[in-house]
Amino acid sequence: MKALRLCLFAAALACTPVWARTPPAMAPAAARADRILVDKSERRMQLLRNNKVIRTYPILLGDAPSGPKRQQGDERTPEGDYRISGRNPNSRFHLSLRVSYPDEADRKRARLRGVDPGGDIMIHGGTPPGYRRDWTDGCIALSNEQIEEVWSLVPNGIPIRIDP
């Protein structure tokens, strides 16, 4: 079932070849977010500037959203404090912003359990309009239109807090 959903998403994205996309320009510095708050239980992501919410987005998460990410393949979205550590304008899910998971504490917990902590946690597009079911492997998913706005408002390096 998951493979079918991913195929449907890939087909929807195929309408715009990766090479034809130009990522949105960054918003002026005064309009950019300085941190991100994610509430997994509410399926909500907020962009903040000077402790004021400037945007709120509904989000979708991993197929097994309850609890923190513990290892590669558990399909959970991490919980805790991270940073936006990079961006990919050629993501297969339209655009993506990298979350700095795993941090050293995540790696240590995984090492103690003898497992791989996983990685490649992103905020990305690819959710078809109106789709309301968690579908990622642990990422935070938005619509393509929403990720374009987030892309322009979120600079690299800002903190992201992911709450249960």
From TrEMBL:
Domain of life, per lineage: Bacteria
Active site location: H124 (proton donor/acceptor), C139 (nucleophile)
Sequence similarity: Belongs to the YkuD family.
Annotated signal sequence range: 1-20
Protein name, as recorded: L,D-transpeptidase family protein
This protein's UniProt keywords: Cell shape, Cell wall biogenesis/degradation, Peptidoglycan synthesis, Signal, Transferase
Keyword check for Translocase: no
Organism the protein comes from: Lysobacter gummosus
This protein's record includes keyword Amino-acid biosynthesis: no
Pathway listed: Cell wall biogenesis; peptidoglycan biosynthesis
Region (Disordered): 60-88
Domain L,D-TPase catalytic, first and last residues per copy: 34-163
Lineage of producing organism: Bacteria, Pseudomonadati, Pseudomonadota, Gammaproteobacteria, Lysobacterales
Pfam families hit by this protein: YkuD
Compositionally biased spans, kind Basic and acidic residues: 71-84
